[in-house]
Amino acid sequence: MAKHRKFVDVKDLKNGMKLEQDIMDSSGRTMIGRGSFLDDFQIKYITAGSLEGIYVESDEPEEYPEEEIPAELPPEVEEEAQKNREEDRAKVELSHEVVERVGEGVKYIFSNPEDESFMEASENVSNELISVIHSNDAVAVDINLIKVSDEYTFKHSVDVATMSMIIARNFGLSKQEMEELCVAGLLHDVGKSNIPLEVLNKPGRLSDDEFKIMRQHSLFGFKILKGRGFSQGIMEGVLEHHEKINGSGYPQGLPENRIHKYAKIIAVADVYDALVTERPYKKAFSKREAIEMIMAMTGEIDIRVMKAFLQSVILYPVDSVVHLSTGEPARVLKNYKINNMRPVVLGLKTGKIYDLANDVNCASMIITD
């Protein structure tokens, strides 16, 4: 039987219920993780807080269907909401035509890595993405909308390149560096064209030997680019995007000071996109969960790049409708540059405005979807 989320009043919580949201403290730390089965101690912790209810797994459908969201609000409520509304920062917007051209270009690049026009084709595709970002001076990306192709390798490459450029802009890189980073982002997985298909497309978990082969893709990519006219930065971005600042990455186990800044940026975009993408051998994490996981990777990811990443993503676009952990649907009015998981929202049942980032009365309230 299909499982659903159900909103349950805290007074009705019972042992064994499976959480369908994180329970966080006033500092934003996860105290009880999604997927946990509640026990007496956890229920006591939840009921002692200010939550009216939480989401748990259920055989029943969602408790708050779309038709219960008011179509219109009282004029005075709407007027107050508009006073608190603030447009999102300029975002990347990929038109259908750009998506088509970029998608075809990436497919060609990955299918013809030995072609004489490989470098030219790579630059042509990157120029498409660069022009989109420069056209409206984009400094953010709506991470709900990036989608170029259903084919993972192509979609992933464009997602990573697009996100890397936005991170680079917030990181303070020059226009030329952004352009080089776009090429490196597009080509970061080109070495997978040298991985046997039975390994690359295996639906289950890789064996140790297969994983050793897969880990060579960044080295293969470096070799494909070498001697083809690409800058050293682009080649190092491709080679080192799986290196970690604690030295535990591959293929060289480099320390932080020897990892190229392009590789550090691509690493964050690569990890994020991999987390939120469903694959035959794993389910996709929610975008919120993926951001939380990246925030916990302080031993592996450059903290300055992580901050630039958090400034670059819009998780809940202004005017989108979300659900709060109180069970109330809400409309997003304003996003903060850093604290992107805790925007200002308008409760669509109560008509109240909640500043999730700054109002202490909202400390235990979170967005669940």
Topology, pairings included?
Blueprint: E1 4-9, E2 23-24, E3 30-32, H1 40-47, E4 53-58, H2 75-84, H3 96-111, H4 118-135, E5 141-142, H5 152-171, H6 175-187, H7 197-200, H8 208-214, H9 217-225, H10 232-240, H11 261-276, H12 287-295, H13 303-312, E6 313-314, E7 321-323, E8 329-334, E9 344-347, E10 353-355
Helix pairs in contact: 3-4, 3-5, 4-5, 4-6, 5-6, 5-11, 5-13, 6-10, 9-10, 10-11, 11-12
Strand content: 5-15%
Helix content: 40-55%
> Main β-sheet, in a few words?
4 strands, antiparallel
The CATH H-level homologous superfamily of the largest domain: Hypothetical protein af1432
Radius of gyration: 22 Å
Span of the ends, CA to CA: 22 Å
Integer tally of domains: 3
**SSE arrangement, N to C:** EEEHEHHHEHHHHHHHHHEEEEE
User: Which structural class should the secondary elements be placed in?
Assistant: alpha+beta
Quickly give the CATH architecture of the largest domain: Orthogonal Bundle
Please characterize this protein's 3D structure:
Helix content is 40%, strand content 10%. The protein is built from 13 helices and ten strands. It has helices at 40-47, 75-84, 96-111, 118-135, 152-171, 175-187, 197-200, 208-214, 217-225, 232-240, 261-276, 287-295, 303-312, and strands spanning 4-9, 23-24, 30-32, 53-58, 141-142, 313-314, 321-323, 329-334, 344-347, 353-355. The strands form four sheets. The protein has a four-stranded antiparallel β-sheet. Strands 1-4 form a two-stranded antiparallel sheet. The chain has a two-stranded antiparallel ribbon with strand order 2-3. Strand 7 (321-323) and strand 8 form a beta hairpin. The chain is globular.
